[in-house]
Backbone:
């Protein structure tokens, strides 16, 4: 059954059954809604843990790896967030499903390298959760190239993208980026710094656009410069998006998703025209 997410994600790849997913949630209403939605959309059967003891037992009882966990922050037996700490310590990718949101709490969650957080404060909460789960389980289909001469910046962006389950390649300069793109035709998104010593982000984008269109590769430029005109110059060079540093995780992930969603939509339309 085709799935259209609230943010514009489209998925028609069929069943995602087979991935072991835990839901640590004590609300009967939400456990019922979530399990029904995931089964209906993706043929996913989830394991429900209604308290901390059941969560620990679920981990201990099976050697099958847990692909993803969805966890409430305050679970019976773990009212101070121990369940989330437990999952994070086990390096289990986790989406937090919570009814409370404060700036300080958001910062703490992001610091734990969670996959995502979804708020229970609206009628679309379960739909947003389903989309987040679908993205995580399918993001490995996307290959992203990071281009930056700073090793720290490359490591930071790479870790963020890998947290979301993307396949990632890195290049320390424009020349290496062109080599990687030539050898990996499946790369669908490039995130490139503007200020690099050999080939800057503008020139790299222009060279790529001489042979590769936006229907094959989306390009996001990034820069820490205060020059607001950089975005206009980058877009005129053939880029698709531009982000000024420092950016927050949610903004970065949203821009990545939007560009990949657009890429898939364009490719789907081209396939329909070719088959018509």
Residues:
């Amino acid at each position: 059954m085709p799935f259209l997410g609230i943010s514009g994600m489209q998925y028609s790849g069929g069943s995602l059954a087979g991935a072991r997913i835990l839901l640590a949630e004590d609300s009967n209403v939400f456990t019922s809604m979530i399990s029904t939605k995931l089964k209906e959309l993706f043929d996913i059967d989830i394991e429900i843990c209604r308290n901390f003891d059941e969560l620990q037992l679920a981990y201990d009882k099976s050697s099958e790896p847990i692909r993803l966990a969805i966890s409430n922050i305050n679970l019976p037996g773990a009212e101070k967030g121990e369940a989330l700490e437990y999952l994070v310590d086990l390096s289990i990718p986790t989406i937090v499903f919570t009814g409370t949101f404060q700036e300080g709490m958001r910062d703490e969650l992001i610091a734990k390298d969670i996959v995502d957080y979804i708020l229970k404060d609206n009628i679309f909460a379960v739909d947003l959760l389903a989309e987040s789960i679908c993205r995580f389980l399918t993001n490995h289909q996307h290959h992203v190239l990071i281009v930056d001469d700073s090793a720290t910046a490359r490591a930071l962006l790479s870790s963020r993208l890998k947290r979301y389950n993307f396949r990632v390649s890195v290049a320390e300069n424009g020349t290496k980026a062109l080599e990687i793109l030539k050898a990996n035709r499946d790369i669908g998104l490039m995130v490139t710094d503007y200020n690099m010593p050999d080939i800057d982000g503008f020139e790299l984008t222009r060279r790529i656009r001489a042979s590769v269109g936006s229907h094959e590769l989306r390009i996001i430029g990034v820069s820490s410069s205060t020059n607001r005109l950089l975005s206009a110059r980058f877009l005129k060079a053939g880029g698709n998006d531009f982000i000024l540093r420092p950016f927050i995780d949610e903004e970065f992930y949203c821009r990545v998703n939007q560009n990949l969603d657009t890429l898939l939509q364009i490719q789907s339309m081209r396939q329909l025209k070719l088959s018509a």
Notes: DSSP finds ten helices and twelve strands in the chain. Residues 249-275 form the longest helix (27 residues).
